[in-house]
């Protein structure tokens, strides 16, 4: 009986896509330090992170509910609970909806209502705009649908200030431009899966060289936007160093992918997953700089 309970709990947790939630929290937490100019109250951080986790869990669960047909056709997702039948579609729909309601009320009552509406907006954008409207219709789905993944930055800032400001919007754009260099390499690796499911991810409908060129463009935009935060916030040496070093490696890896694509490399030899994994490290290092810089502020000489 205990084993069955654990399995059921594990299946519901799997619906929420915990690894994606971890990445979203990486961008929420540091922005709160920047907004505070120091260390926010422990209770505010906990309340915001719990509310943000619930909102992301709701969006991911509803995404699994809507995408269960194509998940069944992709090797990467064929073991998800809705595909295997471990959880019924009705149960998943109720679970995702309840999580959304709880997250909105949690953020509204324990943080502030601006953060709550931003959290609800993130759910609507991911479920309605990306999953329903864009994902199966356009190769630019992840570009515009990625707006939902930018929302945690605004939630973190608004949780501290009950407002929005330019530093938060700059970081919002950093994640917006970062999303294609992060997700398209993964799509390149699993493009056969997406093709079989009829999902027009860019690597499915375009040649690897064309995809790699766009990845390079978005990587440059990501790094340039991250540097724009320096005068806007303003930031000091710690963030500047993190942005320059991690940004340089991101650009090297993006150009490396383009070189391999032009050489006709395919599959594992193309090395798309190398860029995918580093893109996560890049975002983590950049936002670590966002968090630490206001704590150990070392002003730049200009």
Oligomer: single chain
Shape: flat
> What is the number of helices?
15
Number of strands: 0
How far apart are the first and last residues' alpha carbons, in Å? Answer: 65 Å
* SS-derived structural category: mainly alpha
Largest sheet: none
Average pLDDT rating = 94
Helical percent range? over 70%
- Low-confidence stretches are none
What does this structure look like?
- The chain is flat, with a radius of gyration of 20 Å.
- The protein is built from 15 helices and no strands.
- The chain has helices at residues 2-15, 18-36, 42-66, 68-71, 81-84, 89-110, 113-134, 141-145, 147-161, 166-189, 191-197, 202-205, 208-232, 237-262, 272-292.
Please render the helix and strand layout as text.
Blueprint: H1 2-15, H2 18-36, H3 42-66, H4 68-71, H5 81-84, H6 89-110, H7 113-134, H8 141-145, H9 147-161, H10 166-189, H11 191-197, H12 202-205, H13 208-232, H14 237-262, H15 272-292
Helix pairs in contact: 2-3, 2-9, 2-15, 3-6, 3-7, 3-9, 6-7, 7-9, 9-10, 10-13, 10-15, 13-14, 14-15
Produce a short descriptive summary.
The chain has helices at 2-15, 18-36, 42-66, 68-71, 81-84, 89-110, 113-134, 141-145, 147-161, 166-189, 191-197, 202-205, 208-232, 237-262, 272-292. By secondary structure, the protein is mainly alpha-helical. It is flat, with a radius of gyration of 20 Å.
Which key features would you list for this structure?
302 residues; mainly alpha
């Amino acid at each position: 009986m205990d084993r069955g309970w654990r399995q059921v709990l594990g299946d519901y947790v799997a619906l929420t896509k915990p690894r994606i939630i971890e990445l979203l929290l990486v961008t929420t937490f540091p922005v709160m330090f920047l907004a505070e100019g120091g260390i926010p109250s422990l209770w505010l951080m906990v309340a915001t992170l719990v509310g943000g986790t619930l909102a992301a869990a709701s969006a991911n669960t509803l995404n699994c509910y809507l995408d269960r047909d194509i998940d069944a056709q992709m090797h990467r997702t064929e073991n998800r609970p809705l595909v295997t039948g471990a959880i019924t579609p009705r149960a998943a729909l109720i679970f995702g909806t309840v999580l959304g309601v709880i997250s909105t009320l949690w953020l509204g009552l324990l943080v502030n209502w601006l953060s709550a509406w931003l959290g609800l907006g993130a759910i609507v954008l991911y479920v309605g705009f990306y999953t329903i409207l864009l994902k199966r219709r356009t190769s630019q789905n992840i570009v515009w649908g990625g707006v939902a993944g930018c929302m945690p930055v605004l939630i973190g800032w608004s949780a501290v200030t009950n407002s929005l400001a330019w530093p938060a919007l700059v970081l919002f754009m950093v994640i917006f431009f970062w999303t294609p260099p992060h997700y398209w390499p993964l799509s390149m690796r699993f493009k056969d899966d997406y093709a079989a499911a009829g999902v027009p991810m860019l690597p499915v409908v375009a040649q690897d060289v064309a995809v790699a060129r766009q990845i390079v463009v978005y990587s440059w935009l990501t790094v340039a936007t991250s540097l724009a935060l320096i005068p806007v916030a303003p930031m000091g040496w710690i963030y500047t160093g993190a942005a320059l070093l991690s940004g340089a490696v991101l650009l090297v890896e993006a150009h490396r992918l383009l070189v391999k694509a032009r050489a006709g490399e395919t599959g594992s030899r193309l090395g798309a997953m190398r860029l995918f994994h580093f893109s996560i490290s890049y975002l983590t290092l950049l936002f670590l700089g966002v968090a630490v810089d206001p704590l150990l502020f070392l002003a730049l000489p200009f």
